Amino acid sequence: MELIQDTSRPPAKYVKGIPLIKYFAEALGPLESFEAWPDDLLISTYPKSGVELLKDTPAPRLLKTHLPLALLPKTLLDQKVKVIYIARNAKDVAVSYYHFYRMAKVHPDPGTWDSFLEKFMAGEVCYGSWYQHVQEWWELSHTHPVLYLFYEDIKEDPKREIQKILEFIGRSLPEETVDHIVQRTSFKEMKKNPMTNYSTIPTAVMDHSISAFMRKGITGDWKSTFTVAQNELFEAHYAKKMAGCKLRFRWEL
Length: 253
Hints:
Elements: E1 13-15, E2 18-20, H1 22-25, E3 40-45, E4 61-65, H2 74-78, E5 82-87, H3 90-103, H4 113-122, H5 130-140, E6 146-150, H6 151-156, H7 158-168, H8 175-184, H9 187-191, H10 194-197, H11 228-241
Parallel strand pairs: 3-4, 3-5, 5-6
Antiparallel strand pairs: 1-2
Helix pairs in contact: 7-8
């Protein structure tokens, strides 16, 4: 991550109607001339949805993005680049994203949890609407080579999900190697690894005394943050936004 000197929590910058971290929005220009290769592998998630599982998985050129489809270089779709998409339930994402906003000062000021949750539901957080993000990639999976995975499934049985990934990219590994990947990509291992926990980033950019970048990594942590009233409001809003969508998420394991 490039060191950022201005840590004044600048407001989000909108690109095609989608709010982004100011510095990232200003760096999108080179994407216009990006040329995808057919054997590229794209890892896509909404922020705070978990992608580290794939770091030790063999691949040709590994690309990672949080961008919604509207901001993705068209060449990636034209070349039919394989995509692994990881989705996580919205309640856990909202809580995790709030704490990430608090500690990563490239984000606008998150305000209170209550006000942040309202912004999250309205899609007024960086990278836009969670609802749009998970649904548009789900729809793309019907016409494009997309392996759609769920964070909760990975937590439940990481070895099973790694085997899905290997099959999708046309690779095979000895079982002991897969077991090693499972061990190395566990939340416990990554939380203490400076290569994945961002602990070497200056405090002026990421303040780990406010919240760790890798905080809990569990499913169902939203229950310790949502009030009963917030949960009822969220459930009603969720039902409207996900009406007609066949995606089903697990709120706890």
